[in-house]
Design brief:
- The structure is a single chain.
- The chain is an all-alpha fold and 592 residues long.
- Helices cover 63% and strands 1% of the residues.
- It is built from 22 helices and two strands.
- It has a two-stranded antiparallel sheet.
- Helix 2 (24-58) runs parallel beside helix 8 (156-174), helix 4 packs parallel to helix 6 and helix 15 runs antiparallel to helix 16 (415-427).
């Protein structure tokens, strides 16, 4: 399966999307989904950079300063679950637009927070918004591209790496010259910090957050005003709205400047036999004249997107199909399975919130049926161990570099020099997405590639503890940055393909939430280890990477299409009337 997908693994909708191909719509969606990934790492890196300056500003003790990052990760955990599940219930488009606009709003609150407590609250709110970007954006992109182009999902990790570089570069420009003096005055053997008026001299971290707020607002504006996003056709099919899916696909075809006649039979999601492929229209795509293209980008003054772009309804012209809607049985949730405690809250919870919570419980329960249990646990284990390892190393990286290079030179590096070290570290990972995209298409495949690079990262962590010169420290740290970027590129690209459309948003959201939980735990484990030895947190990271590699290598398959193809092969030739389903194990076909 590493090299591609067979025709037997396709559905009619797969073939239709393959015929539409990669056009203007898909490439623009790749770029705009990348904005969400960029914003995610940009804000995370900014919090790490600003932490010492915030400590100076509010005179926060070492025991309390950790709440800054914990607040952010806590919000991201809730955001990953909430937005992932919301995208399964309310649609992909709602989450796609709402995450960034809320990130810009809460980012502004972060930049003007007058107290440490309000800063933590603002960061928590920011986390709830930005935490949904990666699972929802990745899912939306995956469901709009041909199967043989899905490796491009790993390219979103390029944006993730760029986000860290952007935060560090902006910090270099605004933080060092707008921070409390870093020099110490000496009175005999006593060292004293130079007095600082934080209201005037220590505004650099606020400037950093404000600049990132402006950038986030621009990303949202690009999505809203320069791009006409349509709801995911796969989501519409599985929400019982196939007529709308047909209309959406026709619009995407026009956007790409092509012509292809499609009907309801072309959005069927049942696996096709090789003979069944004949059901798909054989019309070749024909290029339209350039002046007849429906452009997805518009800079004309007459273009005024309707505010409903923030919601999951498609467009006004699909309203005629509403009367023919019928709920997909696999997408309907029985109240009989709702926990009693949740039933009791139905009377006072808003209907939308109740339905989202109920849907999350139902969909999460599907992940623990016999069909999905092993996959779910191994995917979660991979995410938790790799996130624990990466966060533990990344959080203490500036401190470790400063201590190691300070030991070599006999003095601590300046703040600007440390920021440049962060730039080099983050930039070192930028080729990782390209390498990851190549590896998943090679004979290694996704699963082996993921296990290999994760184990290689563990080896590099061990080497990092053994070196003490500037050259070797820089080389090993860049190596870790590169391999972890490859790891994240493969893992982020692989996870949505492991699950089917009905539960994909929930599964990815839960995995991303566990990622954030590990991010919250890592500093709590690494802090005591660091107080014992500077090498212990790195050793712990290496062990966690090994455990993550073990979980990755034990995954039963690389994508849900493999599972469904195997199920179809097993049942081929059997009398379907004799097939008895287990509760929660409907015959879910490939819905990627």
């Amino acid at each position: 399966m590493a090299g591609g997908l067979s025709d037997e693994d396709l559905t009619a909708l797969d073939v239709t999307i393959d015929k539409i191909g990669m056009g203007y719509y898909q490439w623009a969606l790749l770029a705009l989904c990348g904005f969400g990934w960029l914003a995610d790492n940009m804000w995370l890196e900014a919090v790490t950079i600003a932490l010492p300056r915030v400590q100076d500003h509010f005179d926060v003790s070492n025991s309390r300063i950790g709440w800054l990052s914990t607040s952010m990760f806590g919000g991201m955990m809730i955001g990953a679950v909430g937005w992932g599940n919301s995208s399964d219930v309310l649609g992909r488009r709602f989450a796609f637009n709402a995450t960034l606009v809320l990130s810009a709003i809460f980012g502004f609150l972060v930049s003007i927070a007058p107290t440490y407590s309000l800063l933590c609250v603002s960061l928590f709110l920011l986390g709830t918004a930005i935490g949904g970007s990666i699972p929802t954006d990745g899912t939306l992109f995956l469901e709009n591209v041909p199967k043989r182009k899905r490796y491009l999902l790993t390219m979103l990790s390029v944006f993730f790496s760029v986000g860290g570089v952007v935060a560090a570069v902006v910090a270099i420009l605004v933080v060092p010259n707008n921070s409390c003096p870093e020099r110490m005055s000496f009175l005999g053997d006593e060292r004293r910090r130079v007095p600082c008026d934080v209201a005037k001299q220590n505004m650099g971290w606020k400037y950093l957050f404000f600049v990132l707020t402006i950038m986030t607002a621009f990303m949202f504006a690009s999505r809203l005003f320069f791009f006409t996003l349509h709801e995911s056709p796969r989501y519409l099919v599985h929400a019982g709205r196939p007529q709308e899916a047909v209309i959406v696909l026709q619009k995407i075809i026009r956007v790409n400047g092509n012509v292809l006649e499609i009907g309801l039979h072309d959005v069927d999601e049942s696996l096709l036999s090789p003979q069944g492929l004949n059901r798909v229209p054989s019309d070749e795509l024909r290029a339209e004249p350039a002046n007849e293209r429906a452009s997805i980008f518009s800079t004309s003054s007459g273009h005024s997107p309707h505010p409903s772009y923030l919601y999951s309804a498609v467009d006004e012209d699909v309203e005629s199909s509403q009367s023919t809607k019928r709920p997909d049985p696999k997408y309907s949730f029985s109240v009989a399975h709702t926990p009693e405690l949740l039933k009791q809250t139905q009377s006072f919870l808003p209907p939308n919130i109740y339905s989202v919570i109920n849907a999350w419980i139902e969909k999460s329960s599907i992940l623990f049926t016999d069909r999905w249990r092993r996959t779910t646990l191994l995917v979660w284990g991979t995410w938790m161990f790799t996130s624990l390892a990466y966060t533990m190393f990344n959080v203490y990286f500036p401190k470790l570099v400063e201590m190691r290079l300070g030991t070599e030179s006999g003095r601590s590096e300046s703040r600007e020099a440390v920021l440049w070290d962060v730039v080099v570290f983050t930039a070192g990972g930028m080729p990782g997405a390209i390498i990851g995209a190549y590896m998943v298409r090679s004979s290694l495949g996704k699963r082996s590639s993921l296990a290999l690079v994760t184990f290689a990262t563990a080896i590099l962590c061990w080497l990092f503890t053994e070196v003490n010169t500037r050259t070797t420290v820089v080389i090993t740290s860049m190596g870790i940055s590169l391999t972890t970027t490859i790891m994240w590129a493969i893992l982020y690209g692989m996870t949505p393909e492991m699950f089917v459309t009905e539960v994909r948003g929930t599964a990815c959201g839960n995995a991303s939430a566990l990622n954030r939980v590990s991010g919250m735990i890592a500093p709590l484990i690494g802090g005591p280890l660091l107080s014992i030895s500077t090498s212990l947190p790195v050793y712990a990271s290496g062990i966690a990477f090994v455990l993550g590699a073990a979980c990755a290598s034990a995954l039963p398959y690389e994508s849900a299409v493999e599972l469904e193809a195997a199920k179809a092969t097993e049942s081929r030739g059997e009398d379907q009337s004799s097939y008895s389903m287990l509760p929660g194990e409907e015959s879910i076909t490939e819905q990627t």
